[in-house]
Amino acid sequence: MSFETILTPEKIEQYTSQGYWLDRTITDFLDDWAARTPDKVAFVDPRRAITYGELKDEVDRAALRLLDLGVEPGDVVSFQLPNWIEWIVVHYAATRIGAISNPLIPIYRQREVGFMVGLAESKVIVVPRDFRGFDYPAMVDELRGDWPALQHVLVVGGDGDDSWAWFLARETTRDVAELAALRPDPNDVTLLIFTSGTTGEPKGVMHTHNTVVAANDALPQRLGITTDTVFHMASTLAHLTGFLYGARLNVQNGATAVLQDVWDAHTFVELVAEHGITYTSAATPFLHDTLNADNLAEHDLSSLTRFCCMGAPIPRAIVREARTKLPDMVVLGGWGQSENGLVTLGIPGDPEEKIIERDGYPWPGMQVRTVDVLGEAVPAGREGRLQVRGPFLFVGYARRLEMTRELFRDGWFDTGDLAEIDDEGYVNISGRTKDVIIRGGENIPVSYIENVLYENPKLETVALVAVPDPRLQERACACVVLKDGVEEFTFEEMKAFLADKGVAKQYWPEELRVLTDFPKTPSGKIQKFQLREQVQA
After folding, report:
1. Does domain 436-536 have CATH number 3.30.300.30?
2. Does the structural domain 26-185 have CATH classification 3.20.10.10?
3. 93-142: pLDDT as tens digits
4. Rounded distance, CA 354 to CA 333, Å?
5. What is the pLDDT of residues 261-294, one digit of tens each?
6. What is the 3-state secondary structure (H, E, C) of 382-447?
7. Range(s) for CATH 3.30.300.30 in the chain?
8. Neighbouring residues of 39: CB distance < 8 A, sequence distance ≥ 6
C-alpha cells in the first residue's frame, strides 16, 4: 500500500539543491558507523547494551524476518514498545526494507491504539508482553477483529511462536545481500507518527527519510555534538522528540545513547554519573525533577552540559536554580511539532532573558513568520498566527490530504499557535488557536477527552480547561453540568469511566468541578476563557 502526500518534484529539487536534504536514510548512517566503529556502544537501555556492529547484525536479521512475514516496501509496521533496544531494532529493520514505522506511545490504550492501527492499516504490530503492569497482547487480541490488514503480532518478552526472540532466531532462506536492493528512496514516507489530536481524533503525520534526517543535521554545529557525546532519552521514543533525539541523533553522529524506559530523577542522576551523559532533551518538568533529586549532591554531573527543554516554557526560577546546582549545564528552550520537527532552539550563550522569555531561534533552513487573520504579515513584536516553512516539514496527514492542504498557504504551514517574533528573530509562543492543554510538554487533546466524557449518561455538558501548575505548567480540569435528576458525579467515578473507555491515563483530567451552568455567549457557545478564570479563581 502507499500513502498520498503533498510532496512535489519542485520541493525535492529545492531542498536537495540547497543541501538540506541529504538523500540518506538512517540505516545508511548505521552501516557507516558499524563499519568504522563496530565495537562502540550505540545504545544502552535498562536491560542491555548493544554496539554498532551488533546493532547492524540484529537489524539485518529482523529485516529479513519481516520479509519472511510478507512485509513489503510501503507496508506499515506498528510498535508500541518502551524505550528498549527492541524499539530501535524494529524501526531500523522496517527502514531497511522500505516499510513505514508507526511508533505508538506506551500509555495509549484501546481507544487510541484501535484508531491509529486501523487508520495505518498496519501489517505487523510489535508489543511488550507487559510493561508497568499492563497486558498489551490482551489489548491487541481485543482490537484485532477491527484490523483486517493486520497479519502478525510479535511480543517482546513472550514465550510462544509469536515471541520476538523466536522471530529473530528462526531460520530464513534469504540472504542479507537482498537488503541492498530494498534501500528506499529517501523521499519515500518512513514515519507515520500520530499527534494527540485537537479535533476529536488524532492525525497521522507523515515524514520522509529526508525530512527527519534534515531535522537532526544542524544540531552538531549549534550544540557542539561529536562522536564523544553521550545522549540520554527518557521521553518516549514514540514522540517526535524521542524519535529524533533518542532513537536517531546518536546514530547520525556515531555517538552513544542511553535510554530510560521509566522516568525517575534519582535514576537519571545515577545514569549521568555512570555513563558520562552530556546531552538530554525533555520537557521542563524533567529538569525540575532533576534539580530536586534526592541524590543530586552525591554524584558528579559535570559531564551534563546540555539540557534542552521542549514543549513548555522554562520558569525563571528553574533556570537560576539550574545555574546554581549544575553550573556546567546550559539550559535551552525549543519549540516544534510532530508536523515540523524542531523549528527553534536557544543558542548556547544566550542571555537569561532569551532563555526565559523566548522559545528559541530558528534552525538553518526553517523560516517562521506571524500573520494576522487575513494572512498578512505582522511586524516584529506583535502577536500573530505562527506559520512555518522549510525542509523539516511533514508531507501530509495520512488519508487526510484535504485537511493538510487547508493548513498551507503558499508553502507556509499554519501551526495553530500564536506567537511574537522579536527584532532578532527569536520566537515567543504566546498562545494557541487550537484547543489543547499542555501538561509537562504533553498535549492533552481537549475535544477528544470532552467527547469521551459526553458519553457518560450522567453528564449534560462538559468542558476541559487548563489550570496552572508550578511543575507541569498546566493541568486539565474537567468542568461538568449534571443531567436533570442526577445528584452526584465524583472524581473517582470519572477516572473509572475513562479507564473503562480505554483512554490513556496521562490524558485524564486531574481535577473535577461540578457546576450548575457554564458561562455562555448569547448564541449558546461556552465561553471557555470565563470558565477558565472561574476555575482558576
Report:
1. yes
2. no
3. 999 999 999 999 999 999 999 999 999 999 999 999 999 999 999 999 99
4. 9
5. 999 999 999 999 999 999 999 988 899 899 999 9
6. CCEEEEEECCCCCCCECCCHHHHHHCEECCEEEEEEEEEECCCCCEEEEEECCCEEEECCEEEEHH
7. 436-536
8. 51, 52, 53
